[in-house]
Design brief:
Number of helices: 6
Order of helices and strands: HHEEEEEEHHEEEHH
Helix content: 40-55%
Number of domains: 2
Structural class: alpha+beta
Distance between the termini: 92 Å
Largest sheet: 7 strands, antiparallel
Shape: globular
Radius of gyration: 26 Å
């Protein structure tokens, strides 16, 4: 064997199969580690989410002392014994005497950056939204995230009018967002200067959700009182 043949043998590239096998092994190992990490951390993640939701419910419905969870099935409500069951839910809040004080509703819609998830409290007695909390948002820090922190904006949801028409089939005055400082009517939301898109997104989410849910809740209200 010549010197050149020895050099070619020493510098020959590795076989393609060996490269793929090594890459495949690394990929499988990484996948197993990801799955293992997810399985280990999942209970903690779920517990933290449940705790955050619990706190948000009572913030959205300040008068409530206890709550019950109801599933929404075919426009009907049924008491859930297992709160972890999948599907749409609402949360009925009761005072110390067990009197229904309101219902918390989940809603979701598109924001500026991504989808926004919220909950809001509804008072059947006053026909108003009495609180709103953002559950999940990826809006721009310092601007869009004001929908979670701006006290003046959050004050919009302490008595936001969602009164029904006489036949109870629709909201009389659909929720609308107006320029900050120009609110005239109780069904309007003062927007946030510098976070116009995000504040309008909240208004749009609430407008759509209340149009669907408030007439339904009013019609089925005895379900929550009888439980």
């Amino acid at each position: 064997m010549t010197v050149n043949q020895h050099e070619m043998k020493r510098t020959a590239p590795p076989k393609t199969w060996n490269m793929f096998r090594a890459m495949g092994g690394v990929g499988i190992l990484c996948s197993l580690l990801i799955v293992f990490t997810y399985q280990v951390t999942l209970p903690t993640i779920l517990r933290k989410k449940a705790e955050f939701l619990e706190k948000a419910i009572y913030k959205a419905l300040p008068e409530a002392k206890t709550k019950k969870t109801f599933g929404v099935v075919d426009n009907k409500f049924e008491l859930l014994r297992d709160e972890e069951r999948e599907g749409r839910k609402v949360y009925a809040g009761y005072d110390d005497q067990g009197r229904l004080v309101g219902i918390v509703i989940e809603a979701r819609g598109q924001g500026f950056q991504d989808a926004i998830s919220i909950i809001y409290g509804y008072s059947p007695e006053n026909q108003t939204v009495v609180g709103m909390q953002v559950l999940e948002s990826k809006e721009t820090p310092g601007l869009g995230d004001k929908i979670e922190k701006d006290l003046a904006f959050l004050k919009n949801f302490e008595a936001l009018d969602v009164s029904l028409t006489e036949d109870g089939k629709s909201v009389q005055n659909p929720i609308e967002v107006v320029k900050q400082g120009t609110k005239e009517f109780p069904w309007q939301i003062d927007g946030i200067t510098g976070a116009t898109i995000s504040s309008k997104a909240i208004g749009k989410i609430l407008k759509g959700s209340t149009a669907e849910m408030i007439p339904l809740l009013a019609r089925e209200l005895d379900v929550f009182k009888d439980e």
